[in-house]
Specification:
With 340 residues, the chain is of the alpha+beta class. The chain contains six helices and 22 strands. The strands form four sheets. The protein has an eight-stranded mixed β-barrel with strand order 1-2-3-4-5-6-7-8, surrounded by four helices. Strands 9-16-15-10-11-20 form a six-stranded antiparallel barrel. A two-stranded antiparallel sheet has the order 18-19. A hairpin with a 4-residue loop joins strand 16 and strand 17. The relative contact order is 0.14.
Length: 340
């Protein structure tokens, strides 16, 4: 599982040709990255869009960061000596081994100094972000190929928080039995955290994981009892998937009540015939629905906590993600689509 409260920068200071450095910045901007390491004299890159430029000058960067190239144990010792002194340290090595990185993470944790590592590709970045569970505080993409930066698009889009709003419950109606999907993940969730589910892509309700005991059934914090097979679920890159098509090993997005996101993988999906409730809510302008199992263990997240779907009543407020536009094969499109 990748924690998504991480920073991702691009090191755009390496090529000697300014036009090549500029193309790295352009590619980063188009991928969703907004922080770049550049050379003195490249300040005019800021005219291309909203971004943060950190000027590299003999290993020193704006904002109290320092780049350390790791070649010898002495380099590691020098980097470790900066813990609690520098704002941040960027580690660059051409022959990473995990033990030195573990040493660094252990040393810097709790020191107040951020630690970032240079990554040549997505797989390296994932490894550094997960080492010793919490990983580094961020990665710096180090490549001279602009197209390589675009390979980070999935990681970038997933790391962005989503906007969560309160919608008002209009009605709850028992409907026919149908096929319900429980999504069991490879991660443990906490109260207030779950998945965004809904019958319309324009409104995905925050359905909490089974992370709370109810006195009759033990907590299963790895599970979200998500709803009927037809429902949408928020997936990486801002796309949607149908619950009924999810498979083991595929990535899904976990969301908490504040809109913070992280990615995990599906361990399995359990599809069983269960009784359903049709939940209808409104944002005053439009009505939205989702279909959930009629069971006290199924909870929606509210501004105050989590409430079982069986205890909801009209007038209650629940949390959801609202967006305009429609979907085509899970991708957002600017088209008028009504899902009723």
């Amino acid at each position: 599982m990748i924690r998504l409260d991480k920073e991702i920068w691009v090191r755009a200071d390496v090529p000697d040709d300014k036009e090549k450095r500029k193309q790295l910045v352009v590619s980063g901007l188009e991928t969703g990255i907004d922080t770049f390491i550049v050379r003195p004299g490249d300040e005019d890159f800021a005219e291309m869009g909203k971004m943060t430029l950190r000027i590299m000058d003999d290993g020193q960067l704006d904002g109290g960061y320092e780049l350390v190239e790791l070649r010898t144990p002495a380099d590691q010792d020098r980097a470790m000596s900066m813990a609690g002194i520098k704002e941040g340290v960027i580690l660059d090595s051409r022959d990473w081994t995990i033990i030195p990185l573990e040493n660094m993470i252990a040393k810097f944790r709790g020191s107040g100094t951020r630690i970032m590592s240079c990554a040549n590709d997505v797989e390296e970045a994932k490894l550094y972000l997960q080492t010793m569970e919490k990983g580094v505080d961020g990665v710096v993409i180090c490549t001279e190929n602009p197209n390589s930066i675009r390979m980070f698009a999935d990681m970038i889009s997933a790391s962005r928080p989503v906007e969560i709003s309160a919608v008002e419950v209009v009605s709850l109606k028992n409907i026919e039995m149908g096929d319900r999907v429980c999504v069991d993940t490879v991660s443990m969730m906490v109260p207030g955290e779950g998945m965004l589910i809904g019958s319309q892509a324009s409104c995905l309700f925050l359905i909490q994981s089974e992370s709370e005991d109810n006195g009759y059934v033990a907590a299963r914090p790895f599970r979200v009892n998500a709803g009927a097979v037809h429902a949408y679920i928020l997936a990486p890159e801002g796309k949607t998937r149908y619950l009924g098509e999810l498979k083991a090993g595929e990535p899904v997005v976990l969301v908490d009540r504040n809109g913070n996101t992280r990615i995990t993988s599906v361990g399995r999906c359990k599809v069983e015939v269960r009784p359903f409730i049709l939940l209808t809510a409104t944002d005053v302008t439009n009505n939205y629905t989702t279909v959930l199992q009629n069971a006290e263990t199924v909870k929606v997240v509210t501004p105050e906590g989590a409430v079982s779907v069986t205890a909801l009543k009209p007038g209650d407020k629940v949390l959801a993600r609202l967006e305009a536009g429609g979907r085509h094969f899970g991708m957002k499109i600017d088209e008028t689509i009504r899902e009723i």
